[in-house]
Amino acid sequence: MNDFRLIQEHFSNLNCPNCDSNFSQDGIKLLKKENDFWIVKIFCNTCNTLAGIAIVGIEHLEINGSKKEIKNIELTDNDIKKFSGKPSITTDDVIEAHNFIKNLGSDWMKYLKN
Known about the structure:
Elements: H1 3-12, E1 28-34, E2 37-44, E3 49-57, E4 60-63, E5 66-69, H2 77-83, H3 91-102
Antiparallel strand pairs: 1-2, 2-3, 4-5
C-alpha cells in the first residue's frame, strides 16, 4: 500500500468539524510532495467545506534496502492538552496560512523544526 493511500485512510477515519460526517478518501488531495513531508488538502464532500490543510510526515524503516511503513503517528493526551483552550482560527488566519503555503519554494522544509 502506498503512503498516500495510508494518508487517505487515516483522514477518512476523522469527522468534519462542520457537519460531523466522516471524510471520504476522494476528499483528501495531495497538494505538494517532497521527500517524506507532504501537504494535503482535506475537503468534506458531505457539506462541501474545506476542512483544512495538513503537513504530513511519513516515517519509514529500511529493511534490506527496501522501505517499509512502520506506524501512524497518533496524538497523545499531552498533544491534545497542548492545543485545547487555544483561540479559534479566524478567516484572516486561514488566508495568511494559504498565502504562506502557496508561496513556499522547494526549500520549504527549512520552516519545520528539527
